[in-house]
Structure formats: structure tokens, C-alpha cells
Amino acid sequence: MIIQLPVSQKKGEKDMSVKINCLNPIAACGMELLPDTYEVTDNFAEADAVLVRSASMHDLELSDSLLAVARAGAGVNNIPLDKCAEKGIVVFNTPGANANGVKELVVAALLMASRDLVGGYNWVKDNAAEADITKMVEKQKKNYAGNEILGKKLGVIGLGAIGAKVANVALKLGMQVYGYDPYVSVDAAWGLSKDVKHITNVEDIYRDCDYITVHVPALDSTKGMINADAFAMMKDGVKILNFARDVLVNDEDMKAALDSGKVAKYMTDFPNPAIAGYKNVVAFPHLGASTAESEDNCAVMACKEIKAYINNGNIKNS
Ligand code: MLT
């Protein structure tokens, strides 16, 4: 759907210079789509439009000339949405553009939660110089034994672009997949397989699943949702994956659940110092969308959105 708004200055149309500020570097294939009349500025305060990836804009003063912000990514928790709304600044994101990149990392993490790839890799690295390493392996490998995911139950909380893709791959890997989303029905979810079982109550996911992966945005209603109450319902030895937003998990409750063995493994894409070094936590430095392909897709979508709005007043609901 395209909504057309009366942009006060259709700057591109008038052939006037349009100033674009990139708070984070954006892939060249996106920037190349912007007309020659657009000029890149380092000065945030004089920009007509801002391109941003994960840099926080919360402490920045929004100028009266700013017309649009495009987030090259899905999450908009780094953007002061209320202040933008007050000033009539249009905010875009790029839903789905990096979903495949995030999905692939989540699937890797799902497998890593089941097989001790980190422990095994570290052991080989540490002992690579030993002449009899091949013999040593026979004694060691029991220390890195794991489980298979075939037939296990995976609960997917949040059936947006990423959650639906993760669910579909998990089905292909032979898991039983249960999907829950407070807003989206299984029928309406993005390309979700009909073989995903629709769960209408998140508690059922907590109670029944061997693995739980969360794919919801950081909202007041979702912050800290993975907490002591949720753990109390879960199976002993459950494995949790959080590649959505750090704040969805209550750190102290997670540590207690790891200590008691309630949670056997916590895989996360957030290097939160409160928990990243804790036992049975495997944390990555927010790598989900850090692929060349996702960066290109997000840059192209964000730059097209900015151009359509600045030149024509079009808000394309991507
Ligand atoms: C997103 O919000 O799109 C992902 O978390 C990746 C990113 O922050 O760029």
C-alpha cells in the first residue's frame, strides 16, 4: 500500500539539494539509488533525512528541518518515535529485509544449543599442537556429547518475518514446531508453513517446549517477559534463544534458572555484560543481520523509502 502525504518541501522534485546524514555507514548499493541532487552531510542538525542502523538517536536534538528517518533494519527501539511524531518526522524501517540473515544465525544457534561446538572447538584449538591429539580425542569426546533436535518441540514466540522463517526451517529439520503471536494469526503470518501448530496461549509454549525462541519487538508489554514466572512453567533443561532484543529476558531470573538447571542453555545475540560470561550462555555481538546480503537489502529498502517520501511524499508500507 502507498500512502501519499503532502510533504512540505518536495525537495527532490524542485531539484533543490537534499541533505542526507548517515548515522551508521549504509551499503553503497543503497546510497547509489539516491538522486545526484542529494548530498551526504556529516552534520546531523542540518539533515533533511537520516539513515541509521543501530546507533541510538535518543539523545540527539531533532531539528525542525528533519523530514524523515530510515532505519536500515527492523527494530526501531533506537529511534525516539514520540519525538519524531510530535515534529511530524516520518520514520521508516525495513521489515523483512534482513530476516534471512537473522534466521540463518538463529538456526545455527539452535544447532549449537544442542551440540557443544564451542567446547569442542576450544578443546581442539587448545590441544592442536599435541602430537597425540588423535588419541586424546577418544577420551575427550564424551565431554562434548550433545542431543539431536529431530522430533524435539520448538516454541516460536513472534511470527513476523524472522519467526516464521525460523519455524519453517525447524520443521524441515524434523522438529515439532509450535507458533504463538499475540497479534498475528498463523494464517496471516509471513509465509508460515501450515504444519506449524498454532498456540493461542504463550503459557502452553512455556509448558511444552524443549526449545523456545523469541522474535518479538521490545515493547512495554514484552520487556522482561522471559522471567521467573515464565521459567516456573518451563520444562527442566529447556533451551532458550533470544536473537530479538536483550531486554526481553530478565537477567537475574535467567541466571537463577541457569544455576538451578531449569535452563540448560541460553543462546543470545546480545553481549550484555550482566550475563554474557555466565555459565551455559553463548552470546554473540549482535551478528544476526551482519551479512553482506542483509546489509545490501536493508540499505536498498531504506534508501528507496527516503527517496519516495522526499521526492513524492509517498510512504510505502514495505
Ligand atoms: C534489526 O532490528 O533489524 C536487527 O536487530 C538487526 C539490526 O539491528 O540491524
Descriptive report:
The chain has 318 residues and is an alpha/beta fold. It folds into two domains: 2-95 and 292-316, Rossmann fold (3-Layer(aba) Sandwich), CATH 3.40.50; 99-114 and 149-283, 3-Layer(aba) Sandwich (Rossmann fold), CATH 3.40.50. Helix content is 31%, strand content 18%. The chain has ten helices and 14 strands. It has helices at 28-31, 81-87, 99-112, 117-127, 133-140, 161-172, 202-208, 228-233, 251-260, 292-312; strands at residues 2-4, 18-22, 38-41, 49-52, 68-71, 90-92, 153-157, 176-180, 197-198, 211-214, 238-242, 263-268, 281-283, 314-316. The strands form three sheets. The chain has a seven-stranded parallel β-sheet with strand order 9-8-7-10-11-12-13, with helices on both faces. A five-stranded parallel β-sheet has the order 3-2-4-5-6, sandwiched between helices. Strands 1-14 form a two-stranded antiparallel sheet. α3 crosses α6. The model has no long low-confidence stretch (mean pLDDT 94). Bound molecules: D-malate. D-malate binds at residues 53-54, 73-75, 98, 288-289.
Question: Summed up, what is this model?
Answer:
The protein is an alpha/beta fold and 318 residues long. It is built from 10 helices and 14 strands.
Tags for this model:
318 residues, alpha/beta, Rossmann fold, seven-stranded parallel beta sheet, five-stranded parallel beta sheet, 10 helices, 31% helix, 18% strand, binds D-malate
Give the topology.
Layout: E1 2-4, E2 18-22, H1 28-31, E3 38-41, E4 49-52, E5 68-71, H2 81-87, E6 90-92, H3 99-112, H4 117-127, H5 133-140, E7 153-157, H6 161-172, E8 176-180, E9 197-198, H7 202-208, E10 211-214, H8 228-233, E11 238-242, H9 251-260, E12 263-268, E13 281-283, H10 292-312, E14 314-316
Parallel strand pairs: 2-3, 2-4, 4-5, 5-6, 7-8, 7-10, 8-9, 10-11, 11-12, 12-13
Antiparallel strand pairs: 1-14
Bound molecules: D-malate (MLT).
